[in-house]
Design goal:
globular; binds zinc ion; seven-stranded mixed sheet; 10 strands; Rossmann fold; alpha/beta
Length: 265
């Protein structure tokens, strides 16, 4: 997925945001007739832990570039027999099992805001993955986001299954929430690479297993991403754009010029 060689007229930009630098240079080009900006969230050469990804800078950088829609791609483990390795899933819910160490909001420092997260993914953008076919894409799954970098213990994996969670990964939190705060449409395409470690007759997850399954399925994922880009209309009106309407509860008279500049985007 790092190797977006189908991106035409590609150039790279080194951006700075009020939240620091994004994970790496942003590649900007044309894909399926659309202007696309690509950030490898773990950095070039995969050097950042899920806990180290500068999520705020990544979303702020996309916002600075004028991006309206974010297609997040990730590898996940399966907590369900029916979600076999190789399956592509479009999640619709998230449960946060990170440890609270990640910067998960653009607010704070004197400005309080609360955005709705009942449906953490954009319904319109999810549709563009589901209608993109021909691959069989599973509609709806609850994504359990753990801190990592270690995979779960068997007891944790069984616990998440008992809670009714469907897939497990390390990056949806706080990425989805930050996209919502930034008024961006955000949907995810999750590729199932393994059965985590709960399954009694299947291999338990290792980094090597994840990489092997990804390599086998990367073409299907790229194809679906390109068709989804084709399907969607970046100019379409969407609820996500109004997510900040009425969200800021701090007395406007007390918001400093500095904070206004930081949150200006
Ligand atoms: Zn939306």
């Amino acid at each position: 997925m790092y190797d977006l060689d189908s991106l035409e007229n590609a150039e790279t930009a080194n951006l700075m945001t009020p939240y620091g630098r994004p994970s790496g240079p942003v590649t900007i080009g044309t894909l399926a007739g659309r202007r696309v900006a690509f950030i490898a969230r773990h950095g070039t050469g995969h050097r950042l832990l899920p806990s180290e990804v500068p999520y705020r800078a990544n979303i702020a950088a996309l916002r600075q570039l004028g991006v309206r829609q974010v297609f997040a791609v990730s590898a996940v483990g399966s907590l369900r027999e029916g979600l076999a390795p190789g399956t592509l899933v479009v999640p619709d819910q998230i449960v946060d099992r990170t440890r609270g160490a990640r910067s998960g909001t653009f607010f704070g420092g004197g400005v309080v805001g609360h955005v709705p997260m009942a449906d953490p993914y954009c319904a319109r953008l999810r549709r563009s993955f589901l209608d993109a076919g021909p691959a069989d894409v599973v509609d709806g799954a609850t994504y359990c986001c753990i801190e990592g970098p270690q995979f779960s213990t068997r007891a944790e994996s069984r616990l998440y299954r008992a809670w009714g969670l469907d897939i497990i990964g390390m990056t949806a939190v706080p990425e989805a929430a930050l996209a919502r705060e930034a008024g961006l449409c955000y949907a995810a395409l999750a590729m199932v690479t393994d059965y985590d470690c709960w399954h009694e007759s299947e291999e338990s997850v290792t980094a090597d297993l994840v990489a092997r399954t990804m390599r086998k399925n990367v073409e299907a994922t790229r194809g679906l991403l390109t068709s989804a880009l084709n399907q969607t209309d970046p100019e379409a009106d969407c609820l996500c754009r109004g997510s900040l309407s009425g969200a800021v509860v701090t007395d406007p008279a007390l918001i400093t010029a500095e904070d206004r500049a930081r949150l200006g985007l």
